[in-house]
Structures are given as C-alpha cells and as structure tokens.
Amino acid sequence: MQYHYKHTYPHMREKYPTLLELITTDDQGAVYLGERRALILDATIVGRAFSNFLSVNGPFESVPHIWNLGYAFGFQFAMTVKPHNSSEDKLSWFSETLARVSTHGFAMFNVVEANFDHDGEIAVNLSNPWNSDTDIAGLENAEFLSSFVGGILSGAASAVKGETVHFIGHLESPASLEATSIGRTTWNDDDEVVKKLKEFAEEITSEPFSFSDLIEKHAPTVERITKLITDLESKNDEIESLRVKLSQLQEVVSEAETEMVGMSSLYKLAVQTAKKVAQSTTTVLITGETGTGKELFARLIHKNSSVRNQPLITVNCAALPESLVESELFGHERGAFTGAANRRPGRFEIANGSTIFLDEIGELPLDTQAKFLRVLQEGEFERLGGSQTIKTNARVIAATNRDLGKMVEEGTFRADLYYRLNVFPVNIPPLRERRGDITLLIHFFAQFFRRQFKKTITSIENRSIEALSEYNFPGNVRELKHIVERAVLLSEGEVLYIETPRTKFDTKNSAIGPKSDLGSSLTLEEMERRYITQVISDCNGMIAGKGGAAEILDLPPSTLRSKMKKLGIR
User: Count of CB atoms within 10 A of residue 501's CB?
Assistant: First the structure.
C-alpha cells in the first residue's frame, strides 16, 4: 500500500517516560510496568509460540485471532494512558499510547496523520519491527505480524476515537524495516478481510473488555503451544545425546584392540584390579605412560559394570581448546557465547546413567577443575550460560600419563580434586616391564591388520620378533601397533618382515634404539623427548596432516603440541 504523507506530526516521545522509568519491582521480585503487573518474555520464545500457533491453526483462522489479541493490547494501553493524559487533544492521547506501546519492543510507531472526525483517516508509520532481527526465530509470515500490529493500532485508535477503527497495513516481508498502516472507521465491506476483522472487533467491544476472559478463551491454545515448545526442546536435547552416543559406539566398533592382550604378571594384576572395581560406582584413576592402553582399561571397567549396555562416553581433555572445555563437559544454553546458536547438552548430562571416561585429566584447566570437583562430590552442575541445576549419576573414570601428585605440589592441579579422583588407582605397566607380552602383541596386531588389508601373511620373521623384543618402546603398545601396521601394509609375501625403529631412525645419539648405551641412564621424560624429536625430524617438521608426526604417534595434533611444550621441544 502506497501512502503519500500530508503532514508529519512530532512523535513527542522525548517527554514520555522511558521503559526504565516505567519498570519497577516490589520486595518479592514482581515486575510492574507503571501500575500494572508485567512479564518480561524472550522474543525468540514468543516468536516460536506465534509460529506454532500459525502452523497449528492455519493462516486464515490464525490472523483474526492475532488481530484480536493485538486489539486488546492496544485498547488496554490507551485506557491505561488516559488518566495520565491531561490534554483533551485526541492526537496527544493517541501519540502517548503508541509511545508506551513502543517501549514494549514490538516496533517504533510514528503518527503521520490523525483525523479523529467520523470517517477521518489515521496514518501511522511502523519502523524496526521486532522480527526484523533475523536471529528471532519463528515469524516467517509478514501477514501475521501485520495483523498483530494492525490490531494494536485499531484497539488504541478505537479507545481514543470512541468508535471502532480498523487498521489495515502492509509489510513487504517479515524483515521489512518500515511499513505504513492506515486506519478508518469505514472500509469496503466487500473485502473479506475487513468483514472478518469487523466481526472480531464487534465481538470484543460489545461488552467491557477483560484480560482474564481473553486468557481463559485462549488458554487451551497457549497451553498446547507451550507444550509443543517444551517437547521440541526436549527432542533436540535427546537427538544431540543420541548423536554423541552413536559416535561413541562407532569408535568402539572401529577399535583394533578389542581384547586385553597380555600374559605377564604385572599386566594380569592390573586387569584383575580393574575387574574388581568394575561392579562398584567408585571413581577410578588409571595411570600409565603414553600408549599403554588406558582407554582399553576404561572400556574393560565399563564392560564389566552394571551399566554395560549403555555406551561409554569418552572425552580427551587434552584435545579440547581451553575455551571450549567447560561447554563440552557441562553443555551450554543458546546464546551463552558467540556461535552458541542452540542449546547443547554436555558430556556429563549425556553420560547420566552410564560411565564417562576423562582421558588426559591432567590437562584440565584449573577453573574447570573446581566445577568438575562439584560433579564428583554433589553429582550436579549448570550448563554454561544457564541457571538450572542438572543432576547426573555418571560413573567417572579418569586417566593420566602425568604425575598428578607433583602437579599438586606445583599448584597446577587441585589437591582436593586429586584426592577425590585417586580413590581407586589402577596402574598400567609400560611395555618394557612386560617384555614377555611383546611377541604375543606382535602376532595379535599382525593377524588384525592382515585381515584388514587382505594380506596373505602366514608367518613372521623370527629376527624381527627378536629385535622388537629388545626395543625399549617409549611409545608402548601404541607404538608397537603402528610398527606392525606399517609392516603389514607394505608386505608383499607370506612372511612378514618388520622394520624396527633402529633401522628406520638414526639412533646414534638417541636412547630409543634397543642397543643404546644411554637407555638405562635416561629418565622416561628424556626418552620420550628424544623419541618425539626424532619422529618430528623424520617427518620434516610436519606436525599435523597426512604423514605428520601426530599421525605417526597416533596422537591428536593438539595433544602432541601440548607434549612438545611440556617437554621443551621447539
């Protein structure tokens, strides 16, 4: 609808109270707008409710109801403003009413022309409607918003003029920033929209208006919409939870080490200890060097627990950026931070009724450690950006290759969290302390990768087994697995020849070779530093990507960089 403005009236908004001046609260926390009780509602939720109302009832039936609601809103505002308006000027009364309505955030209104005589025309310019913000979900129908705003203007003008005024406006799209709405007491009755609107206006104005009647009339619809919103949010949480659990199950299926392989007394003792604690809900701390198979032991404990039918939820604390650790563990609400477009449950919420495995627990930031301690002690937490307390009975298994006791002394790990985690420690021996298992593991991995790569291997060269049995394996079982995997992948006959690290890397000045004279005098940390340095050198300094050091070491790039920083590798 095109309308040529004849006059532009000042909005006079500057002399009306601002929203902050109108809002007050009592000692019980109730909110008042002027003298009337008020509620502050999130625009997204209201938009979603309106959208659901439209989808449930259809446009033809919905629009008159929404116009009806807007009419009641505008009429009530005009009657509230009247006692405070000393002027007999109807323009002043109408302008002040729209100024008050503007404070509610629906839109900004400016009176362009106002003729309150019978058959006179009133023109109001609408700018910056509430759903012009693309972040407000739900209102995708311009006619819907036009009807609501038209109802507000009709109600306000009818109260001021003393007879029913019908406003009909036009929005180009839901995100239109400007529109004009024209109000008259008479329209062409052949217009079906006008007929419908007049029926609703007469229904409202035939007897004194009552908000309680309006609420009672529409209560079933509002209740149904509210339930739909709640159900939708619940389903979204459930979908996200199932998505994470599916990912965890896929990881289990793809694991090569599906069996606990080892016959040495130290290893069998660790396995028996893990099985003993499995049936309880006691917190377990698994310790051991990198590559010893700490996650395998976590899966063993979960597999023998009472919640074995639920997936094990795993979190690698070292692989998470520090800024996202809290969100990953505890979840976040929509808008909690930039990029948080939807509410997301955290791993503790997903693991409710199951087991959560926190690998590399020593990498957890100090501020997150305090919140994690509360979960261990109280079984409760809040999502990031939320205030609702969420309960969880997830059984916690943590693992680390670091000396947490030393970290407590250095002030990088909370003492109270350490003692709360270290209720039942399970230590996994390094491969160099269970050399009798090396041959067993070589055959196990060779069989696994032979099937995976469809090779015709029938035996393994004895000299390869002997050489590997003398190797120190600073990377433990994980390193042995990758050595065998590469050998099987490159093999071309029935006999498997395994190239040892001594022949692949230059070990002249390194402690990683089996014949190194320095191996027995070096600390584990120095051995690990030299091994990682050598791998990085052989990869020409490439950390991430195909063929990079992280892939060779079977570590996430972020974990490898963290280790490099810790070991002083540049």
Answer: 23
